[in-house]
Amino acid sequence: xxxWASWIHKWLALLMAVQILFWFVSGLFFAIxxxxxxxxxxxxxxxxxxxxxxxxxxxxxxxxxxPEGYQPLTLEVRRLLDRPVVVLTSxxxxxxxxxxxxxxxxxxxxSEFAQTIAESHLTGNDEAIGLTFVEEESTEYRGALPAWxxxxxxxxxxxxxxxxxxxxxxxxxTLWRTFDFLWSLHIMDFKNHENFNTPLLIGVTFLxxxxxxxxxxxxxxxxxxxxxxxxxxxxRAAK
Length: 239
Hints:
Helix content is 45%, strand content 18%. The chain is of the alpha+beta class. The chain has a 4-stranded antiparallel sheet. Strands 1-2-3 form a 3-stranded antiparallel sheet, with no helix packed on it.
């Protein structure tokens, strides 16, 4: 049995050597890289938030330049670039952004507005070097669509701004992309980088378990236990 276990152990280990290496390398990277840095949370600018005066909002809501007959299902009041805004959500889950100061609609957000939002979102004086209008999901971004992808030179950083709400929905960088690539190798989802219940991962993990179990079967043989038993039997038979 130990002979068969040795054969299975050797060839399975050889077959899975690359994937096992991927698991160790990616696991080491995940342990070393702080997730806050991967998500560029350390680059988020601290913005002083002024309190909103509730008593003034009834008049501000009444002054919104809404389409005739429009009845929002929900509303969210927040500050955007130091001014009060409101995000209205309709019954069909469509969202729109309005300025509470003058009642004008701000969505869909323009490229210039998205650039200003992204630049104010990050610390430092980084200036955007490019903008892309994103309408489809990708391995890099699966947030609200459509959105503006605002690109920066430092660390190939990109900030995503939702076109309907003006909200920053994601931050990406070279470090994040490295993390995402290693994550795809770790979970063996090479297409979408998010599903860790794939049959491939389950099958390879099962083979890894077989390698461990056959190693346990081989362990006594490698320690010389079986050879010691044979010598002991021969000595007894010789007496």
